[in-house]
Amino acid sequence: GSSTHTTNFDQDSDGLWDYEEEILGTDVYYNDSDGDTVSDGDEINQYLLDPLVSDIDRDTDEDGISNKDEIDIYYSNVENPDTDFDGLSDWDEINIYGTNLLSSDTDEDGLSDDYEVLYDFLDPNNPDDALQDYDQDNLSNLDERSWGCDPGNPDTDDDGLLDGDEVKRYFTNPLMSDADADYDGDGLTNVDEVDIHETDPSNPDSDGDGYDDGVEVKNGSDPLDENSIPTDKSSFYFLGLVLVVLVLGVIFRKHKR
């Protein structure tokens, strides 16, 4: 003979076909076999709970919130202690930070909740602080996160150059101490260009006069003034050497005669 409930019927409207309930051992006529107020279908398909065991008052993911509260109040994942994967447990989001445990960025400012709680001056519930510049280094808090800089330290790599200046003006690395490097190869270190000569460490010829900044500094001209041209001492030395050779040549010829 044929077995009952083998066709695609769901007599108790719990989201499970009758034949599935027969396999699982749940009641095909009652949608909540264990009487825990969560339908058999939801326990199987949504929450991954046991439809034969009343586990609504348990805390499956051990996050400090009962399965019932996760399902009925917070709509969070009973199997995951960090429903939104933001690095903050559901319990901490509810009881400590007051953030949305279903969103990794509660205030939608581009800074994740777990990042904002690391710094006393950032608030995961305040969207305005992302564009502020707490350490006054000419980089917003949001830009600091993007570049990997410390939003509480104006000079993350401690090289004497502000993070914002490194990123926006000099195109140097704000995470690597490169003050003594010479990015543009003009013979001047980055920090000397910024602090002493006020030249551009990313441009070997700041005033565009055809002479590298280092050459101008060495020869006493102004690397910021295109009309200030360095004296090419080497050319004089060369001319002097040529004259000496010519004179010696003349003397030698006369001596041979």
From TrEMBL:
Region (Disordered): 141-230
Keywords: Calcium, Membrane, Secreted, Signal, Transmembrane, Transmembrane helix
Biased composition annotated in UniProt, kind: Acidic residues: 155-164
Entry's localization field: Secreted
Transmembrane domains' residue ranges: 235-252
Main location: secreted
Classification via InterPro entries: Ca-binding_acidic-repeat, EF_Hand_1_Ca_BS, TSP3_bac
Pfam family, any one: TSP3_bac
Entry protein name: Uncharacterized protein
